[in-house]
Structures are given as C-alpha cells and as structure tokens.
Amino acid sequence: MYEEILPQIITTNDTKLLLLVLDGLGGTTNQDGVTELEAANTPNMDALARAGSCGLHLPVGYGITPGSGPGHLGLFGYNPIKYQTGRGILEAFGVGMHVNPGDLAVRGNFATLKDGLIVDRRAGRIPTELCRKLVAKLREHIKQIEDVTVDIEAGKDYRFAVVFRGPDLSDKLSDADPQIVGKPPKPAEPLAPEAEKAARIVNKFIQMATEVLADEHPANTVLLRGYATLPDIPKYEEKYKLRALGIASYPMYRGLAKLVGMDTPPVGETIDDEIALLREKWNDYDFFFVHIKKSDSYGEDGNFEGKVKIIEEVDAKLPQILDLKPDIIVITGDHATPSVLKAHSWHPVPLLMKGRYTFADDAQKFSERECAKGILGHIPAEAIIMLMLAAAVRLLKFGA
Amino acid sequence: MYEEILPQIITTNDTKLLLLVLDGLGGTTNQDGVTELEAANTPNMDALARAGSCGLHLPVGYGITPGSGPGHLGLFGYNPIKYQTGRGILEAFGVGMHVNPGDLAVRGNFATLKDGLIVDRRAGRIPTELCRKLVAKLREHIKQIEDVTVDIEAGKDYRFAVVFRGPDLSDKLSDADPQIVGKPPKPAEPLAPEAEKAARIVNKFIQMATEVLADEHPANTVLLRGYATLPDIPKYEEKYKLRALGIASYPMYRGLAKLVGMDTPPVGETIDDEIALLREKWNDYDFFFVHIKKSDSYGEDGNFEGKVKIIEEVDAKLPQILDLKPDIIVITGDHATPSVLKAHSWHPVPLLMKGRYTFADDAQKFSERECAKGILGHIPAEAIIMLMLAAAVRLLKFGA
Hints:
Two copies of one chain form a homodimer.
Chain A: H1 6-9, E1 17-22, H2 36-39, H3 43-51, E2 53-58, H4 68-75, H5 87-94, E3 104-114, E4 117-120, H6 128-141, E5 144-145, E6 148-154, E7 159-165, H7 196-212, E8 221-228, H8 236-239, E9 244-248, H9 251-259, H10 271-281, E10 287-292, H11 294-300, H12 304-322, E11 328-332, E12 349-355, H13 368-371, E13 377-380, H14 383-391
Helix pairs in contact in A: 5-9, 10-12, 11-12
C-alpha cells in the first residue's frame, strides 16, 4: 500500500509494535444472535477497546474468503491479490521447510499405479506414519537431479512437500496429475519456454520416485502439483525499516512471517511458550507478530464454545503482554472462521488498536458490532500496518 | 471487481439469490429531517434489517450522481466507469428495442428545417402521437441502407431511437446535430477511420428521412446523436455462473438486465405482475433481479408522500417474495432520488442483506441512518454481488 510514497515517509525510532493475531477471530451471528467474540468474557480486551480505537478489516476483498496465505499477507501490509503465494509454498511452510528465492516448492500425493493407470490418487489415504517411512525412502534415493538438490518432507496422510533447489527453476508448469482415476500418469509440461528445465527435473523426480516405490503397495507412485516459487516481496527491514520477529507455534505461519523478512525462531506449542519467547526477545526487535492458531481450529470444527474459550484464554494472558508496554498493540484476526460455517469466511474481522495517540472511540467492548461503531471504520487489512506505523510516529509528514 | 481472481473462486450450488431494487430508493433529509424511507412504515423490511446486515452503497463514486445505466451496472457487479453504455443504447432500451453486438444505436430528435437552417431542434415539441405517426412513415420508407437494416421506434414527444444493424458499424462519430438553432444541418463525421461506413449510413439515413418528411411541418428533418454500440461486457452465466432473470416493467431496465446476460421476459406494469412472474420462474433461475420503478418517478416529481407510499406498497408485498425462501435477499436502490432534489443524486444508498450466514447487526430498521450503523459499512455498489455470492456459499476460498 502506498508503495510509491512509503520510502519518503518511513522513519525509525525506538518504539515497539505488537500485532497479536487470533487466527480466524471473526465470526458471524449464531442462532442466539452472537459471535464467539461477543460471547467470550474478555475484560482485558474490552478495557483496551474502551481506551483505544476499533474498526473492522477486510482481509482480501468484499465477499472473498481468504486462505491463510492471503489472510496473513494482507495483515502484514501486502496486497494479497498482487502477492500470491502458491500452494506448493504453503504446503512446504506447513511442514516446516524453508523456501528460498529461486526454489521451486511442490505439493505431492502418494498414489496407486496399476497396469499403467492411476487407480487411486491418494493411495488409499495411507496413514501419516507410513507416509513418513516412504518419504524417508525417497529422501535416501533422490538427493540430486542434475544441478538441483531435492528436499522432501512428509505431511499428513498421503501428502508430502518437495522443494527443488537449483538455478533456473520456473513454476510455470502444468500439474503432473491426471485429476481423475483410470487415466495414465500425466507428466508436467512447461507452460512457458523458461520452464523446460523445471519440467524435466519434476518428471525425472516422478520417474525416480516410481522406481524407488516399485515394490510398495498401495503407494507406488507420486503426483505433483501446485508448483510455486516465492513471490518477489519487499521485506520488512527494507519496506518498513522494522526489525521484525514472528512468533507462531505452527510452521505455516512462521513460513509466512519469514516470507516478509521476519525472524522466526522455533517456539513451543502453548500460548505461554509464545509469550515467553516474546518476553525473551522484547529488546531485540521493533515489530512483533504473535500468532494464536487454535481460535481458527475450533471455528473450523464448528466448536463455538471451544473458540470462545481460546479467546478467553488469550484475554486472560493479555496482561503479561501489556506488561511489556508496547507503544502500539493491535489485536485482530487474519479472517473470520465462524463456527456456524465450520470454515474460513468473507466476513469483516474485528480490529482493536491501542497506543498513546490512538483515538478513544465509543466502542465499549471488543466485538464485531462494537467494532462496527469504531472510529477506524471498515479498512482493508493492508492499512493496519500503516496505522500502526503512524501511531508509533514512524511515518513522516507527506508533502510540505 | 476482482476480475483476475473471480474465475478461480466462483462455483455453483442450488441457492437462489434475489436482488430487489427500488429505483431511486435513497434520499436526503427534508425540512423535517427525514428521508422517504425513514418516513415510510415498513415493518417487513425493518424485521429483515434487524435479522440481517445493513450498510450503505456508493453507486459510482463519491459525489457522482448516476444515471440509470451506471446505477444498474454497479449493482450488477460491473465497474460503471469502465463499462459505459452510450445514450443511444439506453434510448433504444427505453423504447423496448433489442440491441445486439455490433448494432449501432442512436437517439433521434424530430426537428424543423427552414431555408437550409435548423430553426427548431425539437420540432415544436410535437406530441408523442404525432411522433408515432412520423416514425411509422419513416419505417415504411427506410428499411435498408446498403447492407444495413434500419429499425426505428418512437419515444416520448419529439424523440425516437434508431438501431442500425449490419457489419462494420462503429460508434466513433460526431453528433449530426448543430446543437444551436440558426445553423445548417451538421452531418455525422467519422472520428476514426473505422467509422467511415457508419458516418455514410447515418448521413444517408438523415438525407432519406428529410426527403420522406419534406411535406411535414414542423417535423421535417431529424437530428441524430448519442451513437453507441454495446460494451463488451462479460455475461452473468460466464462471470458468475448464474442463470439470471431480470424482472422489470420498464423496458430500459429489461435492456440493462439483458446487457449482462439476464433473461428478460415481458411483464405487466404492476408490482403484483412482477411478483407473479417471479413466482412463476422461481425454479428456472439462480439469480433474480426485480426492479420497482415508481419510487424514482415520485422522487423526480418531488412527491415525498408518493415515494413513501410506493416504499410502503413494496413492504406490504414483501412477504409474498419472502415466501419463496431466497437463500440471500438484498433490498436496495440503484441511486438516491431525494424528493427535495427532484432528481437523481450522489447520496449513499441504503442496503439490506439477509441470508443464513449474514451477521445480525444492530440496525433496528431499514433507513439511511440505521444503515449507517450496520456491519456492512460503506461499500461500492460493485461489492454487493460479491457479498451475495459469498453469502450463498458460491465463492471458494482464495489461496491456501
């Protein structure tokens, strides 16, 4: 946002900016006419809402339900339609792999080949444990193809991710997946001249994997799709002059944070682990992204009460975060995950912002309907980082 | 809107979407501080407002007063600045003519020619009945020019519309109208090389019409302007995967609906006729646009009470529409027509949306000031169809 003027107005100081993201925080009203955030008892967030500014943000666009990638890129200040992260990258992030500029990341399925035809695209949904064993076998036999090194990591069930690392790899390839059963394997085809090498490497990988798996059943071949290289995305240090730390238990969110230039040390699974890391690193960074996953997970399960409890748990621990005295704190979600929908959704997401110079508006608690009355109005997710920088007095006057 | 990502997220299901447009619904406050919608007694719309989501929409842009064309194209989900429908097309639609791709539609005036000069650009504002007679005479004598067939239809008073149908017709022509009296007739001139044929045809038409009308008085010649071919607009079936039905008593709105690919059967003049058609066709379509004209007409007449009564009439009949159980219903206007202005205006337009997954916000009735408190906020008209599709679960998640 405002890429053309940002370089002339961005400045630095010693303020601390904190972005606390409860994944899937937003909701829509249930049969009792309330959302999870409205039902939750959140005295600490409500006090911040009364003292600070509230609004609603639109993660990608009107009616658009964001995946985790677009949801976070928006929050991080990037236009999620302009900067798209392909499936392969998110799959690789999700299993904790690094993807560096130039790397080609791909989603893989184990599949079943019989008499020259793909008869099961998911190899009977083999269990994760078997997937790990097969991936170890592939890893042992396939380390390098031409000048390209090959990294493989098991995912859930029949899924895995591959990252090809070497020069001149393009993601402009057709899926090596017939999509329906009863068809022969489909090689990857280059969709542009610069993708010929990538197609050759990918197809060689499939051939080698099929040889390695020849005696296995039912997982005796692989399908590859969702090819993706990293988008060429300006990093936080360069774009915002911020040394940024990403704190997330789940590897996918660490991957997304790393994509924009945040440091992303590993951290334990609990909210306490995340807060401990935040406190430990407080003096070393300017900007802190803290990600809470489980609000989304409960929403996806349709577990209204579970989502309420996670929100309440975060609220109860909020004083530990506020003790650090961030100059500006934002609490929001990357999208809505209403438990009535059991899925991500397009609904606008509540947003709360408190700093020394934020307007104390009329919102009386942190909830969708109070946020609708807030001074911030409805804003695109991209705008949040701009408002944080402004509230931290890190943006100079534009024009004389 | 979001044209680059829509094809990857649009999907289908068996939901029914209903867009009820009260033309010119929006208002501004009168001397008593209320709008027509605020003054109207609308228990059914108010109940929907309480149960659903409210907001305000901006038809074209801040401060922009839309004509009927841009007002509806915005509601239909098209950027009304990008997709402009020329005057000739709206004139032809207004008199119930079909305009097909490649056709050149033109507005005509009967005028008075004396001693080689245009002495009255409206031929003494001849009555509609005479206009019809003269158009019948022109129609009889001018059926074809070169390989172009000519369709003529009378409008109100001295106005008529012509549609030229044939190959290679461009609308890049100057008006064949001197604009002020006391000047000689002005032929159409091509404004681009590809418009030479169209200029020749149009000028031939004027010459032939002037010959046919030689013995008439005062309508003894014609002026032609507002040349327009159809904009190349993606249709509903292709863009939104919706089988759409447009229900409108007035031909102009059927024309606009047809422009975006809706079926537009003829319908009687009353709201009851429109509802009867809606009920009859309910099983055959996914999307229904129902247009109520008279709210705008009364606004334009400065008849506050008349506009209030039409709104109340629609409200009283709303249960018949709700009985059909649309999965998502939107009630709004294409623009404001405040009776204090006696004209279309730029004011934001109240918007109400109710479906299974819409947020039950704090708006207590359907009115401008309650809509300003709604969860939807202020949105561009283009966003409405996106929110309808989302609420009908017809948009897939964007990105992983």
